[in-house]
Write a structure and sequence with these properties.
With 285 residues, the chain is an alpha/beta fold. 37% of the residues lie in helices and 23% in strands.
Length: 285
């Protein structure tokens, strides 16, 4: 190679597949930011995190929630987005109006390639984690810029005041969301089916993702884990349908792998690391 060829050689810079979770902290490690970081890491994605609130909880239940000041939440997002610039952002538990406004302002400023919102309204033990005013702001301010909303069945009904799931999904799409995945984990059926509703040029289309129920008491953090698994596969380059399909398989296997392990006195966590992958490295395009 001569000197001219050396000078013209393109040096490709490399980077990790990166995701960001904006959510509450769970000191017991099963849900929230802790579950999200485990999920990113297990799926080969470099996980970044912004903490919105400190929950006082364990496997038995949530005692109370202590919010992080909204300015601190905003500053955390700016610090990550202005430097590392994750392509996919997942928003989980947000406790109050001012925090949600801070998140919305920061995300509108930095415009991630894909935004997932997992509307954590109630804990599995029945504790309300989002105020009514925050829910109203979520609908009016955050959902119009959301690419994928991932409510479970009670959350979809609560957000729309509609007990019909198809009707609830259509209402959520009318709020401005591009796609809605209604999670079927609360169903009493033998098989658990998640249904994706998407806006297309030909109208609303649906896709179903079904897996057999796993007999396990260790299901703490399944919602957090599923939405972050979807974010992980999107960050790796999958389209939305394949990302959901792969995430559904991952969470089912994580539940199976942790089904017989006792952690705490209540509802235990999944086994996020049943088959961990190395960090994925990409060339900059």
């Amino acid at each position: 190679m001569n000197q001219e060829d050396c000078c013209n050689t393109i040096v490709r810079k490399k980077h990790y597949a990166v995701g960001l979770s904006i959510a509450g902290s769970d000191p017991s490690g099963g849900a929230g930011i802790q579950a999200d970081i485990k999920t990113f890491s297990a799926l080969g994605v470099y996980g970044t995190a912004v903490i919105t609130a400190l929950t006082i909880q364990n496997t038995v239940g949530v005692q109370y929630v202590h919010p992080v000041p909204p300015q601190v939440v905003y500053d955390q997002i700016v610090a990550v987005m202005s430097d590392i610039r994750p392509s996919v952002v997942k928003v989980g538990m947000v406790n109050d109006v001012l925090t949600l406004k801070a998140i919305s302002t920061a995300l509108r400023q930095y415009k991630p390639s894909f935004l997932i919102v997992d509307p954590v309204i109630m804990s599995s033990s029945g504790k309300q984690l989002m105020s009514d005013n925050a829910m109203a702001l979520l609908i009016n301010d955050m959902l119009p810029v959301t690419d994928l909303l991932t409510p479970n069945i009670p959350e979809a009904k609560r957000l729309t005041d509609n007990n019909d799931l198809s009707g609830a999904a259509i209402t959520l799409l009318q709020y401005g969301v591009k796609a809605v995945l209604i999670k079927g984990g609360h169903s009493t059926d033998k098989d658990k089916t998640d249904i994706l509703f998407r806006k297309t040029e030909n109208g609303i289309v649906t896709d179903s993702y079904t897996s057999s129920s796993v007999n396990s008491n260790n299901t703490h953090g399944t919602g957090c884990t599923l939405s972050t698994a979807i974010a992980s596969f999107l960050a790796r380059g999958c389209d939305i349908c394949h990302a959901i399909e792969k995430a559904k398989y991952y969470i089912t296997e994580a539940i199976k792998a942790g089904a017989e392990v006792e952690t705490g006195k209540g509802t235990g966590p999944l086994n996020h690391f049943f088959d961990p992958e190395p960090l994925i490295i990409k060339d900059y395009e």
